[in-house]
Amino acid sequence: MNDVFSVVLALFGTIGVLILTYYGSHWYARRVSRAAGNITGGNHIKVIERVIVSKSSSLVIVDIEGQQLLLGISEQNISLIKELETALEIPQRKELSKENFASILKSIKNKDQ
Question: Which residue stretches of 37-97 are H helix?
Fold first, then answer.
């Protein structure tokens, strides 16, 4: 009887660990993608927004020291579609602080209920 109980307990423990790992990795991936935002790049070149058009091509709005360009990107080449006359606002990255982390945990807790 003890052997059956220990096997069942080990099975439920393993399933619990797998479920926690799945939800933990899902939460972390969402957090990292939100924290990174849409901006990537260095000091002088920033990717403001990217839209995937197909498996191997996308449209990208790039800011190069205040001048914004709409680019078409594929596996074979990069082409300039248009220089934007009106500059789009560049969103700022959010810094992850203790208060932000606490609000993320509260939102997860409330979402699960």
Answer: none
Residue pLDDT, tens place only, 57-75? 999 988 888 889 999 999 9
76 and 53 assigned to the same domain: yes
In a domain, 68, yes or no: yes
CB atoms within 10 A of CB 62: 20
Range(s) of the domain holding residue 83: 38-88
- Residue 48 neighbours by CB distance under 10 Å: 20
Q: What whole-number distance in Å separates Cα of residue 20 and Cα of residue 18?
A: 5
Paired with 57 in beta bridges are 54
Q: pTM value? A: 0.46
56: left (phi over 0), alpha (psi -120 to 50) or beta: alpha
Q: How far is CA 107 from CA 22, 27, 29, in A?
A: 18, 11, 16
Chain mean pLDDT for the chain: 80
Query: 74 and 47, same structural domain?
Result: yes
